[in-house]
Amino acid sequence: MKKQILIVDDKQSLSALVAQFLHQNFEVITKKNGMEAMLWLQDSHLPDLIITDLEMPKMDGLELIKRIKESGFFAEIPVMVLSCKYTSKDRIECLKAGATDYMVKPFNPEELLIRLENILQKSIA
């Protein structure tokens, strides 16, 4: 059975591109912002990993990470940030909030796949 990945990004072209790249190895779900993602999670969905952008309307990626990690039920889901924000301050803020990894757009799809596989291997162990 394929692992499920939730992609949260308001740029549909980018989330579609990532989903297309990942769909061979994973079941991919996409949501447009953190609010949609939280509602989907609260509707009894439990993905194996979440990829989120940071800059989105309604609820940004940092707030989404905080809410996931503060909730007892979703706290163990690994979260990868995929963002245009590239400063060390941005990365540190996300990692402190509980993000598992952080990649900057534009990204190498092969590197993304390797990082996702590594995260999923560790979450099984």
Automatic annotation (TrEMBL):
The keyword Phosphoprotein applies. The keyword Phosphoprotein applies. The modification 4-aspartylphosphate is found at residue 53. InterPro entries: CheY-like_superfamily, Sig_transdc_resp-reg_receiver. It comes from the Bacteria. Keywords: Phosphoprotein. Residues 4-120 form the Response regulatory domain. This is Two-component system response regulator.
